[in-house]
Every structure is written in structure tokens, then in C-alpha cells.
């Protein structure tokens, strides 16, 4: 295949499912070199099934998958190992191998029957470790690394395999926030630097919007929408898919917003960052903010440090110096108003 | 990149190993690869000299134990005379030469083959099932071999006359097919249940079931046949003749060759089946090869020496703990050497030097092996158990 062909993966009229159950159909998807694609969707919509089908762990219900123009079905496991590198979400069962040994396993398709590493293999291993930043752990046992570091080692293994396509099944599942962000940023950089197509499934909607070149979004109507994440936000598909009883997708920030039940109203005079966090606290308390001056409770605040809040209700006025005091005051104010 | 840099920082409670620190240091000062700036040689872990040293020490130990095992017994023979006899020179006393050639040499060779073979089959089982407590004994494979032999010895005259006529080969065939049957059963179950604890339970249940069948056979058998079977279960390295040794050597060699043939694939098995498949390994094919190799090793050794306990389970753990790696390129030669040395050592203890009696080898290996298994369990509670 010539390098000018940027398409690494193509599906034609692909339908996927398992045990006779069809999950998604007529998929015509593409993955391009140098791009990071995130597969998003609520649980149980077929993310894993799609990844398993694209990596030939599951047979398609109908249709074809081509990798670099080769029909996936027709490839032996050995041939596939030159095309797709895999990283799984499951934790590695404890095994006493050094980081170097694990990354070197990525060279399995290239080594002789004894598994002897040539200098080319060793250089590929070293380069892969360097790309993900685990070189300094080279001779340390994988058991002694943190979850984030381990997942990096598994990515290095997939890189050492030197495949045009790398598929990661929820690689951030067991990681904390810092590690999740840095792992997905790393994958984005790797896609650019190594000119591979990288596909990962994730629940990190906000991060995917910020970092992915394109997104495959599985909707609640069993459809897969692909495109630039910004396009999917603008068309409202993101908001539609991730709509819930107590959560909403906020088009302004590209983040989720928790919907609080509101049963009381309050008038708030404020602006800027202090105003934002005051509003934040009031919404959690179940207040709806109104501009109407005739609300039974009204709050005005001093916007400069030291902050203070003036609460007016039932002709009385209370001044508080912090938000927790403000909340206490409001709780007694509402019970008083209710009593009246 | 800021966040990436923070991740790479070591957790404070984790002191980097001396080796890691050295290799980082040497990459800063050391020469770089002439062809590629990305390949500072000192950074790649190179434990070859360490492993080579270990092989050398263990080989020397095996040779030493081998000679000692031949020297001591009910009659002690000086080492000089042992070496004379082994090299074909004339020996001071003709009886010594006879003892060595007819009894002690085949017994010592059997110890080496049995120790190495059982240890290797234990390693194969632990990797295949990805379970540190797997072994030919725990998963019921030895029980399967016992059942095969029990059926042959006690019910053979009724059911398997042709196999009895085959003599030694018949016993091997019965033991190997018995163990293959149990292993296949355990393997079928292992495809259904993923977790290792359930698998161990299944293995133990299969073991109990085979034990029950053996009991039924015993109930209906003559005392003579029961005794023949019981003596076989005690385990013995001494009963193996030169002809039997040839058969044992041949099947063990075959199992060993198969293991060498799949060592690269075994390493990928350590990552789990999905990763192994992703690296281009045909799981089904290599699983069958591993099972055949295990049956050849554990089955034939059990046939001739009886169900020798614990060696198969304990030796891979000793090797991994000593060498701090699960890499099969290193482990395969290591378990062979450790297994051989351990079995020779057990045989020496079983001799009870200076006395006329010998202990059953099974009792000795179990006495030595049980503490190792306890150690594995305790270690896996504090650290993570690994295969």
C-alpha cells in the first residue's frame, strides 16, 4: 500500500452484533493516518462489539472491514498482528516481567521461533518506550508500576508492534483524572508523531471533544454518527445522546451539567467569578435564580475580596462572610417564609 | 506535556531498584549506539550474565548431587570409584560396579528426568491456566494417570488384556491417556469458567472422582493387586530399569522439545489470551501443544515413578523467586536445573544415608514441597501472586 493512501481502515455496509443480536447496521466508517478517533456512546450500545469486530475477535453479521485495502476476514492471526495493535481495558494479571520484556512482546510477529530480539527489534522497543515515557522503568517489574504507568507500557507494546492501526478498548477505565487526561493527550501526540490511526473507546466525553480529531458516536437510536466532535455538538446529537433525568450536556462548555431540582426562587445581584460560584451553591440548595425583584428572598453581594453577602427576607437583613453561612441563613429563611 | 511529566515522577514510597537507577545513569554517561541516537545500549536491561551465572551454578549443583546420590546408599562408595565406574574404568570392587551400573545410575538418571520433567510440566500448567497454584498434582492430572494405572493393574485382566501384554509401554499408555483425559476435561471447563479458583475446585473434584473410582476398583480387587497399586502410589525412583529409562527418556525428551518449540508463545500467554491473539498467536494450536507436552511429561513420569507430589508446583515458584522474572526463555532452563537438583536432593534424603530403609519419594517431596506452597500463599497475600 502506498503512503499516499491515507485511509487505514474502511468498513463497507458493516453490520455488527453477537449471538444473533444485531446492534448496529450499515456502517460505512473510515480511519485516517495521523488521526485520533474516539468511540463514544452510552453503555450497552455496542462500543466493545464494534471494536471486537474491527479487530477480528468477532465476525461481522454482514458487510466487510478493510484494513489497508485488505479484507479483514481473510487475514490469519499472524498477518493481523502486522496490521492492528491492541490495548485492552482489563488489568493485567500480575506477572513478573520487566517493562522491557513486555514491550518486547510487541515484537513477537517479527522475531524468529526462539523469540530472539535483533538490534532492529531492540531499537523499536526502545523507541516505543521513549515515546510513552517509560524508558526509566525499563528493567523494573510491571507489578511495581502504577495503573497509569502500566497502561502506558501496554501502549508502548502496541507501538513496538509497528502497526498502522492501534485500537484501545477503554484504556482509561481504571485511571484517575490526571492519568486519563495525560493518556489521551499522549495518544493524540502519538497519532501525529507516528502517523498511525488510533481508535479508542471511552466514556470521557469532555476529553474526547477537546482532543479527538474525529468522533464515532453511537446514539440511543442504534445509529453511529461520525464526524468532527464540534460538528456533533453543533448538530445537537451529543446533547440528544447524553440526555438524562438529572444530567444535561452543556453546549457552552462541552461538559456535563447536573440538573438540580429547584422548588424555591431567589433574587441574586452579582456578577463575575464570585457570582458564578454563589449561583452554583444556590442551585445545589434547590434555588432557581430570578431577576424578579418581588422574590421573597433577595441576595446582594460585594464582588471584591473580602466577600460578603446581604440576605433580605421578611423585612430583615442578614450579612454573612462565607457561602456556608449563606446557606445556613437561607435554610432558616426559607423555613421562616414557609411558616408565614 | 506538564501532566505527563508529573506522571513519570516516581511515587514517593517507591524506591527505584538499584538496577534501574544504574541503567538510567549509564544512559546519561554511556556511549550511544553508533547507528541510532535513540538506542543508548546501557539502558536496555541485560541480565544475561546473571542468568548465565545461575545456570552454571545450578549445573554444577546437579553434577555434584548426581555423584553424591550415586555414592551414598546402604553401601557407601568413594567418589573416585564412582567416576571410574561411570567412565568405564576398572573399579576396585566388582560389587560396587554392579551396584552403580544396575541400581544407582539408573535411579539417579530417573531422578534427574523426573525432577526436570515434573518441574517443566508444572511451569506449563501455571502459564496455561495463568494460575500460580496450578500444577500436575493440583489440577488432577496425576490423579488421571493414577486412574489409568489403577484400571490397568486392577481391572486390566478383564478389560485391557492387550495393554497388559505390552508390559511397560502399556503402563505408560494407561498413565498418559488417563492424564490426558483429565487435562482435557479441566481444559474444557476452563473455557467455560474464566476464574482460576473455580478451575482449581473443578480440578480437585475431578481428583476426588478419580480417587473414588480407584477405591471402587480396590474394593473388588485381590489384595495382591491392591498392594501392587499402593506401592506404585508411594512413588519410587528405584524401580526403573534401563529399558524403562529409555522409554521415559524418550517421552520426556519429546515433551521438552515441544516446550522449547512454544517458549516464545508461552511468554505472550502471560499477557492473557486476547493480547496473545493480538500478537498473532493461534491460541488453540498452542494450547493443544502445551497440553500434549504436559501429558507426555507428567503422564510418563507418573507411570514409572508414581504420583510424585509438589515438585511440579513448587519448582517454578522457586525459579521465579530466585530469578525475579516470568520470562520463559529464562524459566525453562532454570526449572529443568532446579527440578533435577531438587529431585536428586530428595532422593538422597529418602535413602536415609547409613541405614537399610528408604522412604517413599512421594513423602519426601511432599514434606519439602508443602512449606513452599504455604510460602506461595502467604506471599500472595502480602504481595501480588504472580505467574
Task: Set down the secondary structure blueprint.
The complex is a heterodimer of chains A (340) and B (387).
Chain A: E1 7-18, E2 21-27, E3 30-32, E4 36-40, H1 47-54, E5 62-67, E6 70-71, H2 77-80, E7 84-87, H3 99-105, H4 119-132, H5 147-160, E8 165-169, H6 177-194, E9 197-201, H7 205-211, E10 214-218, E11 224-227, H8 229-234, H9 237-241, E12 247-250, E13 255-258, E14 264-269, H10 272-284, E15 287-290, E16 297-302, E17 308-313, E18 316-320, H11 323-339
Parallel strand pairs in A: 4-9, 4-10, 7-8, 8-9, 14-15, 14-16
Antiparallel strand pairs in A: 1-2, 1-3, 1-5, 5-6, 10-11, 12-13, 16-17, 17-18
Chain B: H1 2-8, H2 18-29, H3 48-71, H4 79-87, H5 94-128, H6 141-159, H7 161-165, H8 168-192, H9 196-219, H10 223-234, H11 242-261, H12 263-269, H13 273-278, H14 283-305, H15 311-323, H16 328-351, H17 361-382
Helix pairs in contact in B: 3-5, 3-16, 4-5, 5-11, 5-14, 5-15, 5-16, 6-8, 6-9, 6-10, 6-14, 8-9, 8-14, 11-14, 15-16, 15-17, 16-17
What can be said about this structure in brief?
Chain A is an alpha/beta fold and 340 residues long. Helices cover 33% and strands 27% of the residues of chain A. The mean pLDDT of chain A is 87.
Spell the H/E element sequence of chain B. Answer: HHHHHHHHHHHHHHHHH
The CATH homologous superfamily of the largest domain in chain A is named: P-loop containing nucleotide triphosphate hydrolases
State the low-pLDDT regions of chain A, or none.
Answer: none
The CATH architecture classification of the largest domain in chain A is 3-Layer(aba) Sandwich
> What CATH architecture of the largest domain in chain B do you see?
Orthogonal Bundle
Largest interface: A-B, 60 and 50 residues
- Judging from the principal axes of the Cα atoms, what is the shape of chain A? elongated
Provide the gyration radius of chain B in Å: 24 Å
Count of extended strands of chain B: 0
| Low-pLDDT segments of chain B | 1-39
Amino acid at each position: 500500500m502506498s503512503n499516499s493512501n491515507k485511509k487505514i481502515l474502511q468498513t463497507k455496509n458493516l453490520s455488527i452484533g453477537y449471538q444473533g443480536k444485531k446492534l448496529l447496521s450499515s456502517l460505512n466508517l473510515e480511519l485516517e493516518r495521523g488521526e485520533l478517533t474516539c468511540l463514544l456512546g452510552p453503555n450497552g450500545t455496542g462500543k466493545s462489539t464494534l471494536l471486537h469486530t474491527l479487530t477480528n475477535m468477532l465476525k461481522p453479521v454482514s458487510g466487510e472491514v478493510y484494513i489497508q485495502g485488505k479484507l479483514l476476514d481473510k487475514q490469519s492471526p499472524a498477518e493481523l498482528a502486522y496490521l492492528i495493535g491492541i490495548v485492552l481495558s482489563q488489568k493485567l494479571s500480575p506477572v513478573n516481567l520487566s517493562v522491557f520484556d513486555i514491550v518486547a512482546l510487541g515484537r513477537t510477529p517479527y522475531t524468529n521461533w526462539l523469540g530472539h530480539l535483533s538490534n532492529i527489534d531492540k531499537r523499536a522497543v526502545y523507541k516505543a518506550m521513549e515515546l510513552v515515557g517509560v524508558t526509566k522503568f525499563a528493567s523494573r517489574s510491571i507489578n511495581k508500576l502504577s495503573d497509569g504507568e502500566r497502561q502506558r507500557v501496554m501502549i508502548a507494546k502496541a507501538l513496538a508492534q509497528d502497526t498502522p492501526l492501534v485500537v484501545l478498548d477503554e484504556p482509561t477505565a481504571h485511571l484517575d483524572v490526571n492519568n486519563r487526561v495525560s493518556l489521551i493527550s499522549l495518544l493524540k501526540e502519538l497519532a501525529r508523531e507516528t502517523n498511525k490511526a488510533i481508535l479508542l473507546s471511552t466514556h470521557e466525553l469532555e476529553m474526547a471533544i477537546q482532543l479527538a480529531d474525529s468522533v464515532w458516536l453511537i446514539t440511543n437510536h442504534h445509529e453511529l454518527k461520525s464526524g468532527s466532535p464540534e460538528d456533533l455538538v453543533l448538530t445537537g446529537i451529543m446533547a440528544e445522546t447524553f440526555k438524562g433525568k438529572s444530567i444535561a450536556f452543556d453546549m457552552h462548555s462541552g461538559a456535563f451539567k447536573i440538573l438540580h431540582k429547584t422548588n424555591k426562587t431567589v433574587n441574586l445581584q452579582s456578577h463575575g467569578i464570585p457570582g458564578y460560584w454563589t449561583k452554583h451553591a444556590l442551585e445545589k440548595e434547590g434555588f432557581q435564580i430570578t431577576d424578579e425583584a418581588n422574590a421573597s428572598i433577595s441576595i446582594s453581594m460585594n464582588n471584591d475580596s473580602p466577600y460578603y453577602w446581604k440576605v433580605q427576607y421578611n423585612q430583615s437583613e442578614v450579612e454573612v462572610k462565607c457561602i456556608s453561612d449563606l446557606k445556613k441563613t437561607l435554610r432558616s429563611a426559607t423555613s421562616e417564609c414557609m411558616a408565614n | 506535556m506538564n501532566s505527563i511529566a508529573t506522571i513519570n515522577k516516581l511515587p514517593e514510597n517507591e524506591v527505584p531498584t538499584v538496577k534501574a537507577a544504574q541503567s538510567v545513569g549509564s544512559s546519561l554517561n554511556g556511549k550511544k549506539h553508533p547507528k541510532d541516537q535513540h538506542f543508548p545500549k546501557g539502558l536496555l536491561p541485560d541480565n544475561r550474565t546473571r542468568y548465565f551465572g545461575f545456570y552454571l551454578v545450578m549445573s554444577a549443583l546437579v553434577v555434584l548431587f548426581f555423584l553424591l546420590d550415586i555414592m551414598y546408599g546402604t553401601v557407601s562408595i568413594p567418589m573416585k570409584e564412582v567416576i571410574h565406574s561411570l567412565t568405564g574404568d576398572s573399579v576396585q570392587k566388582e560389587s560396587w560396579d554392579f551396584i552403580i551400573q544396575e541400581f544407582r545410575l539408573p535411579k539417579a538418571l530417573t531422578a534427574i528426568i523426573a525432577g526436570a520433567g515434573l518441574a517443566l510440566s508444572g511451569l506449563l500448567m501455571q502459564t496455561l491456566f495463568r494460575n500460580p497454584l496450578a500444577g500436575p498434582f493440583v489440577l488432577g492430572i496425576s490423579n488421571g494417570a493414577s486412574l489409568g494405572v489403577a484400571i490397568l493393574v486392577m481391572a486390566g485382566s478383564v478389560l485391557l488384556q492387550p495393554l497388559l501384554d505390552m508390559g511397560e509401554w502399556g503402563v505408560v499408555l494407561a498413565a498418559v491417556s488417563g492424564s490426558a483425559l483429565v487435562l482435557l476435561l479441566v481444559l474444557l471447563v476452563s473455557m467455560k469458567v474464566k476464574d482460576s479458583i473455580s478451575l482449581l475446585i473443578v480440578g480437585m473434584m475431578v481428583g476426588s472422582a478419580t480417587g473414588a473410582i480407584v477405591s471402587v476398583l480396590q474394593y473388588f480387587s485381590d489384595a495382591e493387586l491392591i498392594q501392587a497399586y499402593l506401592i506404585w502410589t508411594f512413588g519410587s525412583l528405584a524401580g526403573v530399569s534401563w529399558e524403562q529409562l529409555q522409554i521415559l527418556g524418550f517421552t520426556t525428551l519429546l515433551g521438552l522439545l515441544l516446550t522449547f518449540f512454544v517458549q516464545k508463545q508461552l511468554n505472550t500467554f502471560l499477557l492473557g489470551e486476547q493480547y496473545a491473539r493480538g500478537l498473532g498467536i493461534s491460541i488453540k494450536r498452542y494450547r493443544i501443544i502445551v497440553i500434549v507436552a504436559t501429558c507426555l511429561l507428567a503422564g510418563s513420569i507418573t507411570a514409572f515413578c508414581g504420583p510424585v507430589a509438589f515438585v511440579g508446583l513448587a519448582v517454578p515458584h522457586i525459579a521465579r523467586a530466585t530469578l525475579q522474572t516470568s520470562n520463559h526463555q529464562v524459566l525453562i532452563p532454570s526449572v529443568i536445573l532446579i527440578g533435577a537438583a531438587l529431585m536428586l536432593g530428595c532422593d538422597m534424603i529418602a535413602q536415609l544415608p547409613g541405614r537399610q530403609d528408604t522412604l517413599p519419594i512421594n513423602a519426601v517431596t511432599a514434606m519439602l514441597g508443602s512449606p513452599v506452597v504455604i510460602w506461595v500463599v502467604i506471599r500472595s497475600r502480602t504481595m501480588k501472586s504472580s505467574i
